[in-house]
User: What shape does this take?
Amino acid sequence: MAKHGVAIGGISVIIAIVLIFFYLLLVVFPLFEPAEAEQVGQFDRPGGAGHTLHMAMEEQAEIGVRFSDDGRATFFETTTGQLVDDQALSLPSSTSITSFAIGEPLDARVGYGLSDGSAVVVRPVYKESYPNDVRVITPVITYPLGEEPLPIDEAGQALVKLAVQDGEEEATVVAVTADGRLLLTYFAKEADMFDEEAVSLERSQVEIPHDGGPVDFLLLDKDQRNLYLASANGSLIHYDVTDKEEPQLLQRLNVIDPETRRRLTSLTFLTGDISLLVGDSSGRIVQWFGVRDERGNKRLRAIRSFDEQQRPIRAIAPEYSRKGFLAADESGRVDIYHTTAERLLLSLQLSDHALSSLAIAPRANAMLAEDTSGRLHFWRIHNEHPEISWSSLWGKVWYESYDAPSYAWQSSSASNDFEPKLSLTPLLFGTIKAAFYAMLLAVPLAILGAVYTAYFMSPSLRSMVKPSIETMEALPTVILGFLAGLWLAPMIELYLPGIFSMLLIMPVGILLFAFLWNHAPRVVRHSVPDGWSAALLVPVVLLLGWLSMSLSMPLETAFFAGDMRHWLTHEMGIDFDQRNSIVVGLAMGFAVIPTIFSITEDAIFSVPKHLTFGSLALGATPWQTLTRVIILTASPGIFSAVMIGAGRAVGETMIVLMATGNTPVMDFSIFQGMRTLSANIAVEMPEAEVASTHYRVLFLAALVLFLFTFVFNTLAELVRQRLRRKYSSL
Assistant: This one.
């Protein structure tokens, strides 16, 4: 019964591990599924014959809207093209539309520049109702800044280029007039205390000095701080308009090399309005964003390029809440990219004609494109995890607002346009770092202690020491983490010089005591029973520890100007975190020592006595017998102890969670903390949205940890078996 019970238990464990592996694989696999798309509808352009200026869709991608140059907003069903509503905008009859601007996509505001120097801002709103329990969407055109045209140019010149952004407290309109002037007009909002929807506007205006060159593209970011002017030859001007009264010229540059003779054909913001996407006549798309130079000033810099398309880029549609975008070219092709993953996700041939307009649904699950023949193409997109690629998970990535490529883990933020940083490299680095410092402390203490306990210690003392150390293993790691974070870390910070002086005082003091004890009178030495000598070290270790701590303050005053932490930071350039690798090494090493000690002690104590007696009988000293017979024979067990201890250190969660500061940094310094794979899973899994990219990447981290420990333990078992075969003849 015992034989079959053990067999069934072993097989059950193997089956459970295999099932865990496949479950992790099942959750992780969708991360690497390719993007897919299918055509749902194709129809003639709904509404009037006016040229399409802009298209958009509501959140469910059921209703689309087309703004045309004849001053109409046409709403239609995206799957069939059936007309839902066709509204004429409230524009003065005596004027014509001379320019058009798209605001923040989430706010869905667009602006019309008129021939009399005024502008109108409109916004489509989709009202939902449920008559007879049937969902009905009713589109309505609203005027967030009022139906009356906003006066922009008092001289009455036509607005040939326009940029519009509307915030909670302020709205800004930037326009280029027909005579080449660059006007920045901003409206301070003041809500009516009796009517929340009524807003009064206080107009102010400044003319920005401009050389009068051609302006083919005009962009204003959603925070109304950065203004970009660009011409078709690739020259770009960047203004800081944070202070609306005194705009500042920040930079002039060429986003296209003049020698290539390419033309700038498309310019838009990536979601978040930090990056610019520059499309040219060769089909190349380049991402630019601000990077600090050696003087600390932010300057636009080309970060990455996408060269898959070969025809001029006609339209770029950035996703609303992710760092992906769609690009349409003159060949009728649409490509889907993601900037952080730095890869092409999908390429689609929509039409035989050039594409003139492109729109993406707010949830990035559908797109709408119009070609030059007047046909609209509606496609559904399945692209759940575009952020994931080999480079984004394991390589250095140049994230927005970073000054250089880096490894980073930052999975969430309060902002909807946040760029997720999902590199597993700093987490794996932190896992190895924590295990290394824990093993650095635990391995020598546990193995040497086990050797002495099994070989030199008296049986009566061993019967007390071994159970005491094994009892330490039952101490919950959450208690150790709690003590490490709240007591040990502040104490180490306070007595930092004493901690380092202990590394010198403790071994020197023990060796000095051993020397004095060895030269003590024979009567004194023989008063201690054989095998009990180690007990004499207990008061010595306590005394030396007290001496080291007592010397901490004098040493800090004498050599570190009274503050070793400040000295490390400002004199040595070494940052110091209170919860650092020293704390982890001590706390996690304390947790790992019982495991290594117990297995090592059993392995040494189990060496057959006849080997020991035979070695001694042949004239070997006890130390020679230990090093040339006992250790070699027990080496498979000792190696297993170290590997099991390392496995526990790699998988430890609570200690590193509470004692490391939990910061995912790539720094091997003992004064810096870390974040491990297991601690990261414990912290972020409760808050991760089920089936989201974040959720699946956490499972990927678990799979990496699983495979890491599996491969590590498998190699360890191979080494152990080789050692067993090698020394089995002793």
Summary: DSSP finds 16 helices and 31 strands in the chain. The mean pLDDT is 90.
